[in-house]
Design brief:
A hairpin with a 2-residue loop joins strand 2 and strand 3. This protein has two helices and seven strands; from the N terminus they run αββββαβββ. It has one domain. Helices cover 24% and strands 45% of the residues. Strands 4-3-2-1-5-6-7 form a seven-stranded antiparallel sheet, covered by helices on one side. It has 119 residues and is α+β, with helices and mostly antiparallel strands.
């Protein structure tokens, strides 16, 4: 991805990080899918009592919340596309980006849950 696209993603991602801090009780995780060609490289951001944990390339590390973007931005420059999914109780925010466009959309997390009925 080019630097212009990464700076556009930064606008959305900074909003997600502030929402994560504000809604600590509802926050689940942030899943990032870096895509190069047909291969996907997953990363996960979790929030715990020690701070922000980044699980990427089989390494878990605790990172300061204000430094997480620096790591993500450096990785974004290496890939063609990305998909960032912010999950909290009942809702998901999805950012999809490539060199051509950056989109953000809201999804209802409960819509994907399997419907069960009791007879």
């Amino acid at each position: 991805m080019n630097k212009k696209t990464v700076s556009k993603i930064n606008l959305f991602f900074s909003g997600l990080l502030s929402r994560m801090e504000e809604n600590r009780d509802f926050f689940t995780d942030i899943t990032i899918q870096f895509k190069s060609g047909a291969k996907i490289f997953p990363a996960k951001i979790l929030l715990d009592e020690n701070g922000v944990t980044l699980d990427y390339q089989a390494v878990k590390r605790t990172v300061a919340a204000d430094k997480i973007w620096d790591i993500i931005a450096a990785e974004l420059l290496k890939y063609d596309e990305t998909r960032i999914i912010y999950a909290e109780r009942g809702a998901r925010l999805v950012i999809e980006a490539s060199d051509k466009k950056v989109n953000m959309r809201h999804e209802d997390a409960l819509a994907d849950a399997p419907q069960t009925s009791v007879v």
